[in-house]
Amino acid sequence: MKALMLSFVACGLLFGLAEHAAAADPAKTPGPLAQDNPFAQPSPLPYQLPPFDKIQDAHFRPAFEAGMAEHRKEAEAIARNAEVPSFENTIVAMERSGRLLGRVSAVFFNMTSANTNPELDKIDQEMAPRLAAHRDAISLDPLLFARVKTLYEGRAGLGLDPESLRLLERYHTQFVRAGAPLSEADKARLRKMNEQLSSLTTQFQQNLLKATNNGAVVVDRLSDLEGLSEEQIGAAAQAAKTRKLDGKWVITLQNTTGQPVLAQIKSRALRERIYKASIGRADGGPSDNVALVAQIVKLRAERAALLGYVNHAAYVLEDETAGSAGAVNKMLSSLAPAAEANARKEAAEMQKVIDLQEKGAPGGPFKLQPWDWAFYAEQVRQAQYAYDESQVRPYLELDRVVKDGLFYAAHELYGLSFKERTDLPVYQPDVRTYEIFNEDGSPLGLFLTDFFARDNKIGGAWMSEYVSQSGLLGLKPVIANHLNVVKPPAGQPALLSFDELTTLFHEFGHGLHGLLSNVRYPLFSGTSVPNDFVEFPSQGNEMWATDPGVLAHYAKHYSTGEPMPQALVDKVLAARKFNEGFATTEYLAASLLDQAWHQIPASQAPAAKGVMAFEAEALKRNGVDYYAVPPRYHTPYFAHIFANDYAAGYYSYIWADVLAKDAEHWFRTHGGLQRANGDFLRAKVLSRGFSADSITLFKEFYGREPEVGPLLEARGLTVVPEGGKPGR
Ligand SMILES: [Zn+2]
Fold first, then answer.
1. Which of 139, 405, 470, 495 could connect to 393 by a Cys-Cys bridge, CB 3.0–4.6 Å?
2. pTM more than 0.70
């Protein structure tokens, strides 16, 4: 869940129902872009790699202006074309449009994430509403939609090949979903709703930030902090000072229900205070989000109705791999009983520890509460699964893992070879560039790695594209992977943790999805698939990190070259299944809560005072109200769905993981790391982007619908719930 995938490349047209302020004035037509602006023409470098050595901050603003103007002009020319609409003069023309905007967007949004500065941040704030308005102007253009509709209605007679037919259908779908068929009055209502939602969700985020800050727990006695490290206590004293509470300590809150410090703090009373501060955030008080939720949920439902859907989830899920609320409900509810049965087993083990330790305490042993979970889980972990991270790192040297792990697996599976190019410009000296070739020597694309943490780089890990593959435009992919590994001192090797290793393989899975793309149309390129499918190739690629053949190839001591001892490997692998009952249950509870909020019509949206009762009822009805494992997010601080783009979509992480673990099962039962297997996955899934419906791609690969059994097994969720068996 930590590793994101960001895809910034603007292709042809951008669609969406963004909850943004779309009120910006249309831009004045700028003059032509200066020819010495590096975005003015396609890059002359191999694979059209951006000329990083020539791009300066001052180039972005004029390139955006000219890019939007050019795109608007192209769209108008298509819309007002006097010729009868044809697939070529309408759909293909749109696919070819917006190239300048695409070039500048790709570099700009990569830079604001990976290598930003105050000037770029300023341009970003300035451009965000402008780009949103630009998008709306095109997707709500009635003349453009009229041409698409004419073609769509006559599609059977156009003699299109399957990919072209799908392209036409997707354009039609996207225009419809953006609201193009609405009357002008309804379009105005839609714009107003989007604006209102934009302001409500922004307010939700701002309230949450305040409530989280105000929810920080003040501690008066140092003795209460027993269990924390000196650094943590120092940080807590510093946090108190910042708040003018000298001589005290302040524990700040993280965004989730669970708080990491609960694993360490010995004082049960303090644990309870921290936990209650966490779950009480933004539920009433001066930064109340409850009233906002009531309004957001109602407005989203009304907007869905305006667009012709029974509720917001129906709108969102229609365009995802899942396809419908029914399919999501079925998947989540098939996982929940197994997850909870395992969580209860974990709780029972912890209760044993409590009973033993508290036998002689006044009042006897207590019953495990949510604020105790992390603390006793940590004790069980120490006793049963502990390994020392510093023993593992020397076997995971970054360069060797990349060459003998990542690239090795890609060679064995897909026949790829990698050649470092030191002659091409980079935006930062730590970035490395590789040219990739197929087995027959034909060039595939470029792969950029940017692995070290910097102050001007956002946290986490992600994949992005500078150039998206497209047969129509004759483009081969230029793909980048970003991590935040701490950079070692000069001359020292970069040694990874096991988590970082997994993330590396994860992001390279996204990378391969972009690199192996072999589609005609830009709209379908590589990772331009639904949210609940995009994590499938990445989570799937994680399997090669722990594949015995691959691991033996890269996991060697950086100085002695000794292989990683098997006992250590086994310990690391066993630890990965620890506490998964809890983790999966809290995640599923939040996912089901998200669905409950978005599977109702406006008439059923509760008033502010009924919001928390709605939540409690939804958790109960879905069987995820086990008192010891609360949802990962309670409604008032569930920013994924009330401030970000995951409304009705929080389930996607586990949906994609079901596909990934199912695919891993397929590999295991078909001989594992073999060229024939890799080629099959490449042919059926990785090369096809979104040129076919995602669930169809999966079924053509596996030969059946996805099943949840392998995921339960991979997470160690093997305790059978009463009255049924998990999985297959
Ligand atoms: Zn990912």
1. 495
2. yes
